[in-house]
Amino acid sequence: MKVFSRSHDFDYSWDEVSTGNWLKYCPWNKEATHVIAVDTLSRGVDSATGILRTERLITCKQPAPKWLTPFLGGTEVSHVYEVSYVKPRTPAASGLSASESIDPPRVLNDKANKPVADTPSVTMTSYNLTWSDLLSVRETVVYTPSPSDPLHKTRFDQEAKITALCGGWAKIKEKIENFTVERFGQNAERGRLGFESVLEMSRKAFAEERARAEHRL
Questions:
Q1: What is the rounded CA–CA span in Å between residue 37 and residue 204?
Q2: Alpha helices for the chain (secondary structure H)
Q3: What angle do CA 103, 177, 189 make, to 5 degrees?
Q4: Of 38, 3, 5, 14, nearest in space to 118 by CA
Q5: What tens digit of pLDDT does each residue of 56-106 get?
Q6: Phi first, then psi: what are they for 214, rounded to 5°?
Q7: Beta-carbon contacts of residue 43 (< 8 Å; ≥ 6 apart)
């Protein structure tokens, strides 16, 4: 198994990032052309916690190297299942049902290693549906207010656990895992740049709308 991890601070508030997250794959993002469809499967708010839970199917199209193509059956299209949780600013927020297939978000206090109940968060956990007999990729992304400036910056933490499942082919397993980690790194950098552009455009759009509303008054 290989692990890819990355952290970054966005110079935007958590409110801006948590809202902009739903626009991540819109036309403003020129770096996400490999994402060709995003379908919402379900969405609901837990009445006890206020946590918004959303299931999505994300469809991507991205070429693989020639040596890997025979293992993938020649297709460039893949599907990813994603579950996200948006935890609002409420001290009463707690975990969801134990029957959930993917764990609900837990934001930890680094010093005490205990959940911080009043810290808002967006947590997205995803895994691959395509080629799942060959490769297991489980990714977790968490957005929280940045400890350095919680009112104006947002912390982004990403971790992906990558496991090739090709039996006793040790060299092939390692090559597939190394390639997937490398591809994750490339997509992560593109994803950061693309999301920055979405956040910038979103801030401008909201500012223009506020200005029009004030002008009407």
A1: 25
A2: 14-20, 69-72, 170-216
A3: 75
A4: 14
A5: 999 999 887 777 777 767 778 999 999 999 999 755 433 444 334 344 444
A6: -65, -35
A7: 52, 53, 54, 55
- Bridge partners (DSSP) listed for residue 108: 115
pTM, rounded to two decimals: 0.82
Q: Report which DSSP code applies to 110.
A: T
Q: How far is Cα 62 from Cα 54, in angstroms, rounded to an integer?
A: 25
Query: b/e per residue, 65-82, with b = 16+ CB within 10 A?
Result: eeebeebeeeeeebebbb
Which residue is listed with tokens 């910056």? 153
Phi, psi for residue 95 in degrees, rounded to 5: -70, 160
Cα angle 22, 24, 27; round to 5? 115
Interval 139-173: pLDDT, tens: 999 999 999 999 999 999 999 999 988 766 788 88
Distance CA 36, CA 58 (A): 8
N-terminal to C-terminal alpha carbon distance within the chain: 59
Range list of β-strands (E), 65-119? 77-87, 108-109, 114-115
Beta strand 108-109 with 35-45: parallel, antiparallel or unpaired?
A: unpaired
80, 126 contact by CB (below 8 A): yes
